[in-house]
Amino acid sequence: MGDLYSGKEMEREAQNEVIQYSASAQRPHCKHFVLVIAFALVALPSTAHASFLESDTLDSVCEFIAWLVLVIVPIVGITVFWLVHILPEQIAEKKRHPQVKAIKCVVLLSLVFGGMLWPFAWLWAYTKPVLHKMAYGTDVGEGHGDEDKGEQAELRDEEREVASLRARVAELETKLHGQSAAGTRKA
User: Fold this and answer.
1) Where are the domains of the chain?
2) Which pLDDT tens digit goes with each residue over 110-146?
3) What is the rounded CA–CA span in Å between residue 170 and residue 164?
4) Backbone torsions φ then ψ of 46, nearest 5 degrees
5) Which has fewest Cβ within 10 Å: 8, 20, 28, 186?
């Protein structure tokens, strides 16, 4: 009998522990639940408003946003797309790439094909052809030096024109002084 009593007593103690454990386990969840409900009640507004604007004002604001999205955003998007797509061409010209014209063609084709060739043009603009110097004797394309020569020739032409105009002005001044001296002698 002593063994049965101790078994029943052990059963009661185990049940008490289970009850205490389940009660203590429910308390923290209960506290969290109460906190969530309290926060929800505090956060709810006392009165609900659909908008802070009146109906006519809301309509005009919505129309403005619609025009902005339908007209201005595509224009800005297309402009940015175009500016990004011409970057390889500008880089090639800045680096004096010998194949600038071909890079320009790839950039235009990239615009037509929605940017699929753009990474290729970008990489091409940053590289120099390996055998170009051996084949042509220079790393610079044929059109790059011509621009400087053209500007120098234009400056020389302007200098010649200025010199001829100065000579003509001097000639006219001498004629004018000669006529004025002859007019004073007659008088």
Assistant:
1) 56-135, 141-187
2) 988 888 999 999 999 988 777 776 767 676 666 555 5
3) 10
4) -70, -35
5) 186
- The four Cα atoms 147, 148, 154, 160 give a dihedral, to 10 degrees, of -160
Instruction: Give CA–CA dist 75/3, Å, rounded.
Output: 92
Among the listed residues 135, 113, 109, the one whose alpha carbon sits nearest the alpha carbon of residue 124: 109
Take residue 77 and report the two structure tokens written for it.
């998007």
Give the orientation angle of helix 118-126 with respect to helix 100-112, to 10 degrees.
160
CB-based contact 136:98 (threshold 8 Å): yes
**Structure token digits, residue 65:** 């946003």
The pTM of the whole model exceeds 0.90: no
- Asked if 94 and 100 count as a contact pair (C-beta separation under 8 A), the reply is no
